[in-house]
Design a protein that fits this description.
Helix content: over 70%
Distance between the termini: 72 Å
Shape: rod-shaped
Number of helices: 4
Number of strands: 0
Radius of gyration: 24 Å
Structural class: mainly alpha
Order of helices and strands: HHHH
Largest sheet: none
Strand content: under 5%
């Protein structure tokens, strides 16, 4: 507490501890979007699986007509690509969640360093904050890759219909 009395007033301590809060809020917004996208991809997988199942049951023991065979092949290719897309969105969600946790930890380390007067502990809090920023960046990279994969799947579906 001696360090706090000598160098900073309470408002400065609160300001330092809440600085990571901006990034926590940003991660929350990114998580909201990524979770919605994840839900959408999982839903799409279920719909295509259901379509594939109905197509197989409909044909029964008879031979597939060419259109049914093409659609069955298309659903198999789409499901393969959607699994990759779901994995990318999941990785994005995990990255943002870990980043938010690191920002909270950074804030706690800042407070501990200031109140306990731990010399050099600000390096730890800075390192944890930077690790959080790296995780946000990784989440963005996964998001970009997922967007590209989503476009590829749409192209695959369009080409199957032509």
């Amino acid at each position: 507490m001696a360090l706090l009395d000598q160098t900073m007033d309470a408002s400065k301590v609160i300001q330092l501890m809440l600085s990571p809060a901006v990034m926590i809020s940003a991660c929350g917004l990114l998580l909201l979007g990524a979770n919605n996208k994840y839900s959408s991809v999982v839903n799409r997988i279920r719909l295509i699986n259901d379509e594939k199942r109905r197509l197989v049951m409909k044909t029964g023991e008879r031979e597939f007509i060419p259109e049914e065979n093409l659609r069955l092949e298309s659903t198999a290719r789409q499901l393969k690509q959607l699994r990759v897309r779901a994995r990318l969105v999941r990785n994005s969600v995990l990255s943002y969640t870990i980043a938010a946790a690191l920002f909270v930890l950074s804030s706690l380390f800042i407070g501990a360093a200031l109140f306990q007067g731990l010399v050099g502990f600000h390096y730890v809090s800075t390192a944890v904050f930077l690790a959080g920023m790296v995780m946000v960046f990784m989440g963005v990279v996964f998001g970009v890759l997922e967007s590209k994969k989503g476009y590829d799947i749409v192209q695959l579906e369009i080409s199957a219909e032509e």
